[in-house]
Amino acid sequence: MICIPLGLALGNFTEWWFHRWVLHGLGRKRGTFWSFHFHEHHRNARRHNFHDPSYQRSPLALHAQGKEAWALIGASLLISPLLLWAPWLCLTLWYCALNYYLTHKKSHEQPQWAMQHLPWHYDHHMGPNPHANWCVTKPWSDWLFGTREHFLKKSANDSLTAR
Q: Where are the domains of the chain?
């Protein structure tokens, strides 16, 4: 059963690494497949106070959220041979991919929920530095690599507010 916690850690690291080096690295150049994230998704989040209306479109079309879904499906297919040798690791990574998509989608459909449950992701989009806070589901790899920057703070009545 060590494969389950290893899979959760690997899933979080992959989320952090991919977001930082692919979506904000390769994706900064307009016209690349990965530019949807930096140039469409970030623009929508800023323009609509973290809400991204693109999540109302078909999840498998070739727009920002569709490309996100296809990338997760592709990654899940790539690791599917692990099912033969490390089934619990493979199943955990599939869970991580699905959880990432559903959590990311919910956060941008319900910004208040994101402020409460994913403040690190809210900070990524709405804080002054979009080149930090790479994790979406849990901030574990941001903590590990020192890339967690706080923008939201707790107020006296225990709700989150921007500094």
A: 3-162
